[in-house]
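call fold(seq) -> tokens
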Amino acid sequence: MLRTLVVALALGALGCPAKRQTDVASPSARTPKEVVAAAKATIEQWRQAYEVRSVEALAKLYAHDVDLVVVQEGTPYLGWSSVEAMLKDRVARADTIRMRLKDMQVISLSPELASAVATMTREQTQGATTVTENGTLTLVLRLQGGSWLITAEHYSYKRT
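ret:
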């Protein structure tokens, strides 16, 4: 059920570009300010945890259940154990990770569910090699125990 919701959210968030450009402010205007602030705070913690390469800090931001879905570079990771292994590998392979987020839109889907879409630039350095990716990040966050946790993540970028 959650996976179907994630797909629907991703398609809805990316939707028709022409329509989205004319309605950019509408969804955020309907989303309570406290939801936008809390979601953005969680996402900023996520960005910082990547930059300090802390799997422990990242782990606190994800739902630890079988419904967690993360898609990175076209590969789906299902469930916390799979996502945790991917995070450990990514952090271990990188000497530095830098992430920049802009144009973030947070949309409340229900009192306990929100979606966020942002443009993301990720630079990952290993030795003398730096790989820079520019793409779109989509996150679904769920309010659980007073904290907003990532329950779905999808990052895609155009090849250059």
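The first strand starts at residue 69 and ends at 72.
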